[in-house]
């Protein structure tokens, strides 16, 4: 999956600032962090979805809400962390701060900016991955960047989930089948970092995808970790007539790398 790049610029007018000990003091709620433009590597479009040609990369559709965090120090040396939310525009013009969730600079000292996005996160930071038949789950994170006040910075977003892609062969009619993959169905997200919930390992319903290059497959995004191995009872196929088949893999597939696509071919034949 491709990395997504945001260019964040902080342009502030300092004429109304007071000075103490040679350092600008910023009135509270006066100088917002402005995200002036959006770029994504190699794509012309900016909601996250899969590239319609082959599904090997992701794109922003517009309308997504991202969370941005700014951390820094005040003039007396005390630290602060502020969080705001922005929505993406279809035409990639400056992002719009969410009303009453705007993000402001607290001092003119350097700050650390990071950002993250998820379309499956609840208000308590729980992410739910169990049903993706209607659309893939996404968690994206930008690594922290040091930002100088009144300058611009570039943040590069990367996928925090891994993709499982299943190609089906065989004699069974899977036109309206349900395909499930074994994985953790819930986790928690903290500043874009995922922690899986150990008690939620179960079946994740996959999305049937059809791409313009002719690829028809089933896909799901899952939480990667070192011990995540697809092997025994890795997949479940429920055909249109209700027959359920659990499928083992001949060799284990290690799903430990964020942002990686794992393509697996399953053979599903009609039962004798």
CATH architecture label name of the largest domain: Sandwich
Q: What's the CATH topology label of the largest domain?
A: Immunoglobulin-like
Distance between termini? Answer: 40 Å
Order of adjacent strands in the largest pleated sheet: 4-1-13-12-10-7-8-9
Radius of gyration from CA coordinates? 22 Å
Strand content is over 45%
CATH class of the largest domain: Mainly Beta
Number of helices: 0
* Whole-number count of domains: 2
Low-confidence stretches: 1-18, 38-47
Shape: elongated
Largest sheet at a glance? 8 strands, antiparallel
How many strand segments? 25
Spell out the helices and strands N to C: EEEEEEEEEEEEEEEEEEEEEEEEE
| Computed structural class | mainly beta
Mean pLDDT level = 80
Helix proportion of residues, in percent? Answer: under 10%
């Amino acid at each position: 999956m491709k990395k997504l790049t945001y260019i964040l610029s902080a342009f502030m007018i300092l004429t109304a600032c007071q000075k103490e000990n040679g350092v600008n003091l910023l009135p509270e709620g006066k100088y917002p962090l402005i995200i002036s433009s959006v770029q994504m590597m190699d794509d012309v479009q900016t909601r996250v979805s899969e590239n319609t040609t082959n599904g090997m990369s992701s794109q922003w559709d517009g309308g997504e809400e991202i969370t941005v965090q700014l951390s820094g120090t005040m003039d007396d040396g005390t630290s602060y962390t502020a969080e705001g939310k922005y929505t993406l525009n279809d035409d990639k013009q400056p992002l719009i701060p969410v009303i009453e969730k705007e993000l402001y600079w607290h001092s003119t000292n350097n700050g650390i900016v990071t950002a993250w996005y998820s379309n499956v996160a609840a208000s308590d930071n729980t992410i739910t991955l169990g049903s993706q038949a209607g659309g893939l789950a996404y968690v994206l994170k930008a690594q922290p960047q040091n930002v100088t006040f009144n300058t611009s910075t570039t943040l590069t977003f990367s996928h925090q989930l891994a993709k499982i892609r299943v190609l089906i062969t065989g004699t069974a009619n899977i036109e309206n089948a349900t395909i499930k993959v074994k994985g953790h169905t819930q986790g928690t997200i903290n500043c874009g970092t995922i922690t899986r919930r150990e008690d939620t390992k179960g079946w994740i319903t996959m999305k049937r995808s059809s791409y313009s290059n002719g690829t028809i497959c089933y896909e799901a995004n899952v939480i990667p970790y070192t011990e995540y191995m697809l092997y025994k009872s890795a997949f479940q196929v429920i055909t249109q007539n209700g027959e359920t088949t659990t499928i083992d893999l001949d060799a284990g597939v290690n799903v430990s790398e964020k942002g990686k696509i794992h393509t697996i071919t399953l053979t599903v034949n009609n039962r004798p």
